[in-house]
Structure formats: structure tokens, C-alpha cells
Amino acid sequence: MEVNCEGCAGCCLDWRPLDAPGDREREGRYRALDDTYHLVPLSREGIRGFLDDGLGDALVPRLFASDGARTVELDGHRVAAIDGRPAFLVGLRKTPKPVAPFGGDRVWLDACAFLDPDTLRCRVHDTERYPDRCRTYPGHNLELDAETECERVERVHGAPGDRLRDDAVPGDLPPPPLGRGALGSTVFLHPDPDALDGTVARLVAGESTREDRATFVASAAASAPGTGEVNAERFERERERALAADSWVGAADAAWRAVADERGSRVDDDATPAAATVETDRGAPPTGPWGGGE
């Protein structure tokens, strides 16, 4: 599979304020409760890797609304659950950033925490922290014959064939994040729903706290593949690590939010700090070339 990622980043940012590309994540049997666009589900091992690197503050949970019988009532929401325990994914944080995608003007859009807003390249590309689902994207879309973000960008902003160069499904495609065998590997269960009073409401409102996020991240990191079990001792250790995380990601997120304008609005260059000041000076790694796409 060959994808032209240069100058696009359509799958790394929320460009709904510009062109409303659709919102499939809030349709169907399981609907994302948060408003994050294109969250990348991480594996348990990937989550542990971010915690090992002190990047627990780069992770966020996702819960789902459901109309089925397997739900639990939390903060007025019917949340998808197994045996009364809410099911969730963990993905990468989205942060408001000044970006100029698709050859347009600089605007404020929510983007992956690891996206350099100047180069529109990933700061963890070609590292151990680069998620498998980013590396193989849009493999699952192609496997299911579903429109890819590359094709959406082509349809709205570029000539057909410019972004998605071929439709070959990668041979090393990871298992679907919600498929069989996902429990304990990409789909996790919170061990104590009674302790979540107010947490789901804050997640839905986009106002989650460090403590809210840490309890889900720790649950995922302490999960056992193939089961809904969560090791209590490991949960406490991982929760402490998640709470203690103080990386450039969290600091940059706070700095961008302090100056960000309405999403989709043009950036005031005179009032907006440089990405080097907000991210690089706080420890963000530099970006390199994509190397011809993957």
C-alpha cells in the first residue's frame, strides 16, 4: 500500500470545521461518547510503552453509547458494557493547533498531540511509539471497502489518485480494534464503575481531568489479554505513573489551549506563539521526512 502523506495529515486532525467530512464514529450500534475525530485505538502494549516513556498524559479514553442490552447507566448515559463494567478504548490526545492543511490558510483545528503543526508530520513516526494502526492506515478501511480519509481529502481538496496511491491491504494488518480477541488487548473494562461518578459526564463534555484519564489508562495497562480482568496491584502502579506524567505533550496542550481560537477560524499570526516555542522548547522531538510514504 502506498499513501502520500506529505502535506496532508487528514487522518491526524479534525477538519470537520472546514468541510464536514462526516462523522461515522457517532453512528451505528456503538457510538463514541466523546467528540474526538478519528481516534487511533492503541494496544495494551502500546499503552504500556507510552507510560514507560513518561507520556501517560498523551493518552485519552473513549467510551461508547449503546442501545443494546449490554450497557451500564453512568451519568445519565447508557454506556456499552460487559457484565456491568464499561468498555472503552485508549487513544492519543487531540490538541488545538495552528495548521495549514490541504494548501490553505493557517486555521485552528484539533490535531493529534504528536503532529508538528508546521511540517504536518508525526513526531513519533519511525519510532517504537508510532502506533500500528497509524503505520497500516488505511488498511482496515480498505479491507472493509470503506472510504478512507485519504479519499475524503482527494474528494474535497485534490485530484483523485493524489493521496491514496493504491488499494492494497497491508499483509501485517493488526486485528480490528473491536473484533474478536480484542478484549484485554484493545478493548478494556473499567474494574469499578461505582467510582466513575461524574467522570463520564466530563469525558462527554470534553472536560476530563488528569485523574479521569489516569483511571482508564491504568485499567487498560493492567488488563489481561483475552479477558476482562484487571490486576489490582498493577492498576495502582500504572495509575500513579499516569498521574505523575509531566511530558511536553501535556505542557504543550495547556499552552495551545490558552491561546487557541474557535476551531476553523484563521490564525492570528501576531498573537500566536511559534510551534518551536510551544512544543520543541518543551522537549518535543523533531520530525523527519516520511521517506516516500507507506
Explain this structure to me?
It holds the Pfam family DUF7531. Residues 260-294 are annotated as: Disordered. This is YkgJ family cysteine cluster protein. The structure is a single chain. The chain has 10 helices and 8 strands. It is α+β, with helices and mostly antiparallel strands. The protein has one domain. Helix 7 (210-221) packs across helix 8 (232-244).
Structure in a nutshell:
By secondary structure, this protein is of the alpha+beta class.
Q: In terms of topology, how is this protein built?
A:
Blueprint: H1 16-19, E1 30-32, H2 44-52, E2 59-66, E3 71-74, E4 77-82, E5 85-92, E6 94-99, E7 107-112, H3 132-135, H4 139-143, H5 149-157, E8 188-189, H6 199-204, H7 210-221, H8 232-244, H9 248-259, H10 275-278
Antiparallel strand pairs: 1-2, 2-5, 3-4, 4-5, 5-8, 6-7
Helix pairs in contact: 7-8
Organism: Halobaculum lipolyticum
InterPro entries: DUF7531
Pfam family, one: DUF7531
What keywords describe this structure?
two-stranded antiparallel sheet, alpha+beta, 294 residues, six-stranded antiparallel β-sheet, globular
Query: How would the global form be characterised?
Result: globular
> What's the structural domain tally?
1
The chain-level structural class is alpha+beta
Biggest β-sheet strands, sense, barrel = 6 strands, antiparallel
Give the CA-CA distance, first to last residue.
6 Å
Percentage of residues in helical conformation:
25-40%
Counted by DSSP, the helix tally is 10
Query: What share of residues are in beta strands?
Result: 5-15%
Radius of gyration: 19 Å
How many strands appear in the DSSP assignment? 8
Region (Disordered): 260-294
Protein name: YkgJ family cysteine cluster protein
Pfam family, one: DUF7531
Organism: Halobaculum lipolyticum
